[in-house]
Target: Mannitol dehydrogenase family protein
Amino acid sequence: MSNTKMRLSAQTAASLKTPLPEYFKQRPQAGIVHLGLGAFHRAHQAWYTHKVLEQFGGDWRIIGVSLRSSNAREQLQTQDNLYTLEVRDGNSTQREIIGAISEVIVAPESPERVIQTIASATTHVVTLTITEKGYCLSSASGELDLSHPEIQNDLQQPNSPLTALGFLAAALAQRKMQNRSGLTILSCDNIAANGKKLRAALLKFCQQLDPALADWVDENCRFPCSMVDRIVPASSETDIHQLKRDCAYEDRAAVFTEPFSQWVIEQNFAGAVPAWDKVGAEYVSDVAPFEAMKLRLLNASHSAIAYMGAVMAYQTVDEFIANATLRQFIAELMHEEAAPTLSLPASFDLAAYEQQLLQRFANSALRHRCQQIAMDGSQKIPNRLLPILRWQLNNNKQSWRTSAAIAAWLRYLMGKDETGNAYPINDPMSARFSEVYEKAAGDSSAIVTSMLSLQEIFPIELHNNARVVAEITDWLNAFRQQGILAALEAKN
Ligand code: CS2
Model:
């Protein structure tokens, strides 16, 4: 039997009698522009917006902008921008077709259309998932790095920008000129105080172009902080094939996720926003406690799992967490070292949250790859592990597990796992790391001292702290000499 199946589209759905969302038939207008159209957005903000459209209607569809590649457009365009969201848990799967995206624009092909679209009177909200490095911040200070080559480009050629900040500034300049309203600009990336940092970075950028624009943006736009959570591995060819086997159609834009989802948004808007709070999101006055909780418990554990797991040649998070010693290490990293740094309302059951995270990591249907999470460590570590380490030092508490996680990153950067397989290092600072490792010539102590002296990543107080330096060096030596598992077992 041939395995040819029709690609998902409005027509295919009609001929197969596959139900589409009711709102899709009316083709509501877009009110949101989203920058960074990856799997995470499709399984998170687009899904919340889909639920708003289903329950309340409104012109809240999303125009998605890909800042780099044309993949998302190629996947979505022939499908009338429809895609399947598959929720996986153990052996159970649930599928839903999402029609919240109205159009995809590939920024490098038509930068002027991106600017016009954000500047349009019908746009009220811009959301972003551009990953940590997309903000062009110095990781240690969290401020815009004006020397970043793409920022330099965008300051010199403001009408054909490359970065999200460049597009926002160009579009806001038009809104100002045309006397349009400001925008709610909502960062949905895993960065502490994401809205505050985005605001400061954009104002600094605008200041360079035109101080009057910076003033206008400050007065008219709002940058709520938000905490986003849903584990969404990159869709693999295997996922796409399985879906094709199990469904009546083929869907090359499908995304695969877990049942859990959370979105906490600072209630600080420039104008109308979709009623996301009526479909599961929470509007709060201060996101910081939730953000710290998620970054230091979920994401910090994820990074520890990714570096240790990749070095031990584990493919996925669930395989790693199935090992009792490793699970115990992650449970303790959360409970003993990360949790005490948080200040949540007393009524919040943090222990239950930690247990739930261990269960989410164990979801074997997700096949979340360690190597995927391992990328961009230079951008992730300062948001995830370093705040734990600093708090523990300031409070004179032990932090050997956090140090072990950082040492695992440094071991990972050696580029070879414990079975001898080489893998590429995917990180904007990878060239710097190569220099450091080459110069250190295999000496753990030299690796640690030089890496900790990279001020883009490590605050000076950590570099100067003899205890931290010794602890990380000891772990790196132990990992290299005994292997990760034996080194952790020896500590117990
Ligand atoms: C992960 C996150 O890839 C990573 O760095 O830690 O994408 C994580 O899956 C999400 O933040 C979960 O909400």
